[in-house]
């Protein structure tokens, strides 16, 4: 599954843990990625990746987001990735629990195995 391959690669590239959902015992700073599948035709697939950076300050969340963006852009060197591009990047705080969060969205084209 390309989702697991991307998750593993991001965990190898980034200094903080990357999860696919907010863990129950979440550390102070971490990343969460979500995969939104698109269409697949003749082995060529598309999806969007939503990556959220959770930091202890807004500045830190923004800085972490830049690291995530660089890690996602570096995925173009993987054989299974055909194209990757950033679609957006913006603050996305969780005001109900006063947690700083920054979010970026990437569109990915890849080869389905």
Q: In terms of topology, how is this protein built?
A:
Elements: H1 2-13, E1 18-19, E2 30-41, E3 44-55, H2 58-74, E4 81-91, E5 100-111
Parallel strand pairs: 1-2
Antiparallel strand pairs: 2-3, 3-5, 4-5
Label this structure with key terms.
113 residues, alpha+beta, STM4215-like, 5-stranded mixed beta sheet
How would you briefly describe this protein structure?
The chain has 2 helices and 5 strands. By secondary structure, the protein is of the alpha+beta class.
What does this molecule look like?
The protein is α+β, with helices and mostly antiparallel strands and 113 residues long. The protein has a single domain (2-111), classed as STM4215-like (2-Layer Sandwich). It is built from two helices and five strands, in the order αβββαββ. The protein has a five-stranded mixed β-sheet with strand order 1-2-3-5-4. A hairpin with a 2-residue loop joins strand 2 and strand 3.
């Amino acid at each position: 599954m390309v989702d697991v391959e991307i998750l593993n690669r991001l965990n190898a590239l980034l200094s903080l843990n990357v999860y696919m959902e907010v863990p129950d015992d979440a550390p102070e700073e971490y990343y969460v990625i979500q995969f939104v599948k698109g269409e697949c035709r003749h082995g060529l697939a598309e999806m969007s990746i939503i990556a959220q950076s959770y930091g202890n300050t807004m500045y830190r969340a923004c800085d972490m987001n830049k690291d995530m963006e660089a890690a996602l852009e570096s995925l173009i060197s993987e054989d299974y990735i055909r194209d990757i591009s950033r679609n957006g990047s913006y603050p996305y705080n969780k005001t109900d629990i006063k947690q700083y969060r920054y979010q970026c969205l990437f569109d990915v084209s890849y080869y389905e195995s």
